[in-house]
Amino acid sequence: MLRLDQLHAAISGNKWYKLKRNLEAALAGGKTGLLTFGGAWSNHLAATAAACHATGLRSIGVVRGERPATLSLTLQQAQAHGMELQFISREAYRTVNPAEWGARFPEYFVVPEGGHNALGALGCEDILKSAPGLDAYTHLLCAGGTGTTLAGLINSAAPGQTVIGIPVLKQAEWMEASIRELLRPRHTPVAWQLHYQFHQGGYAKTSPALFAFMNDFHAQTGIPLDIIYTGKMGMAFRGLALGGHFQAGSRILLLHTGGLQGNLSLPPGVLSFH
Ligand SMILES: *Cc1c(COP(=O)(O)O)cnc(C)c1O
User: Fold this and answer.
1) pLDDT tens digits for 10-33?
2) CA distance 182 to 171
3) Active-site residue (options: 12, 42, 59, 72)
4) Pairing between β-strand 58-64 and β-strand 139-144 as defined by DSSP bridges
5) Angle, in degrees to the nearest 10, between helices 43-55 and 73-80
6) How far is the CA of 115 from the centre of ligand 1 (A)?
7) CA distance 234 to 256
8) Does the first or last residue of the chain, that is N or C, have fewer Cβ atoms within 10 Å of its Cβ?
């Protein structure tokens, strides 16, 4: 398992890779900050706030839903990192137009929800350079939300490697096109596949089986997984392996993309760690 969760306490995992080129572009363009979008428990908002804070940039988070009486821990932390929060109704969020927000805040570099853009995918190409020897694996397994990270992996995988994506949303067949949008032409195409049956009921949906798996995984390995992404990726790995998906001799790299702050949305005691 590649432990991107251990990269940084607040700028967790793959979110840092998706942000770094966007931060560079904002600075190069003379912008004073980043403006982006997300829900109340968004890892992306948390990471954007922390990364901007560390870079000396401002940040604005456009948050889905009316301002609640008490902010989620994620939003409290984002605010503590200086993020200005703009709440909009769920309805308005559904048709949110990044260009409009860019026109409203011209000093800000606008990053789409989840960091889904070419710069995000480009930054994720560095994931496989983050440790030596990663080209020796036959399979790379990673959770998918927008597919940006998967696109970066597919663009940078070694010839012969297979990239396996586990969408954590229900009916996520759109993710294939969302990945293709960000693929670059390659001399040696890399095989990739998405497995859609491991979402546990949908985005941010959990199940007793998921918690049991995560607790068991932690007991066996000492590694904490998160409920939204990596827990489902871990279950998918187990499901695929037990289902005979991998040939003998396969070397499989699981990507721990971080996101552990999202576990704070659970009542205490559900997980044996955190
Ligand atoms: C956001 C996130 C993902 C999904 O990344 P995408 O690039 O949107 O597919 C995976 N794992 C964790 C922990 C995340 O926070």
Assistant:
1) 787 999 999 999 999 999 999 999
2) 20
3) 42
4) unpaired
5) 10
6) 9
7) 9
8) C
- Helix (DSSP H) and strand (DSSP E) numbers for the chain: 10, 9
Query: Measured over all CA atoms, what is the biggest interatomic distance in the chain, rounded to whole angstroms?
Result: 56
Q: Are 52 and 23 in contact (CB under 8 A)?
A: yes
How many other C-beta atoms are found inside a 10 Å radius of the C-beta of residue 138?
15
SS3 state at 93: helix
Pocket test for ligand 1, best of 126, 199, 229 (most atoms within 8 A of CB): 229
Distance 121 CA to ligand 1 centre (A): 12
φ/ψ (deg, to 5) at 119: -65, -35
The domains located in the chain, with CATH, are 14-115 (3.40.50.1100), 121-265 (3.40.50.1100)
* 52-85 pLDDT per residue, tens: 999 999 999 999 999 999 999 999 999 999 999 9
Is 42 a catalytic site residue? yes
H or E element at residue 156: helix 148-156
Ligand 1 atom, smallest distance to 149 CA: 7
Q: Cα(227)–Cα(249) distance, rounded to whole angstroms?
A: 30
